[in-house]
Amino acid sequence: MDIKTKLNIVLYEPEIPQNTGNIVRLAACTNSDVYLVGKLGFSIDSRHLKRAGLDYWDSVNIKRIEHLEDLWQEFPDRTFYYLTTKTKNLYTDVKFKDGDFLVFGPETRGLPESLLEEKSQYSLTIPMQTGQRSLNLSNSVAIVVYEALRQIGV
User: Fold this and answer.
1) What gap in Å lies between CA 138 and CA 140, rounded to an integer?
2) Which of 10, 81, 111, 121 sits at 20 to 30 Å (Cα–Cα) from 137?
């Protein structure tokens, strides 16, 4: 099966190389592009990063970006969704479309509060049991990417 849809996975200041490697592998399998934004918590040459991504690195368009604003300026007509535990807006309640950007924050702190306040109507969450902090980053990305692909009709 060839997936023609193009989703964009944005990792804002990711900290754990194995998560990023797993997400690169997911991106290869779903025809998604990956944007690494801001300060990374690891070296791009990390053996953990490479091992987690296996031999999928050449199959993925990975771009290094300094600021989210750069993406907003480059893609002004695209929709950006911000995944967080700090909203009531469910990821299943929006209508994803080809070309959307899915923005995920760092593993230990999530996206900045100021960004979530500014973009509150585009902030989404994955429901989970009360009292639990959060899902693993690579699991969260997989859940939302595959829901978006399901909705788009892939």
Assistant:
1) 5
2) 121
Q: What is the phi/psi pair of residue 147, to 5°?
A: -65, -40
CA distance 99 to 33: 10
- Please name which of 91, 85, 76 lies closest in space to residue 122, comparing C-alpha atoms: 91
Claim: this prediction has a pTM higher than 0.85: yes
For the stretch 106-144, pLDDT in tens is 999 999 999 999 999 999 999 999 888 889 999 999 999
* 33: β partners: 8
**pLDDT tens digits for range 26-85:** 999 999 999 999 998 877 775 655 655 556 677 889 999 999 999 999 999 999 999 999
Token readout for 132 is 């639990």
> Residue 93: what are its φ and ψ, rounded to 5°?
-95, 0
Q: Considering Cα of 3, then 152, then 11, then 131, what sign does the dihedral take? A: negative
**Residue 141 C-alpha from the chain's centroid:** 5
Helix (H, G, I), strand (E, B) or coil at 103: strand
- Coil, strand or helix at 148: helix
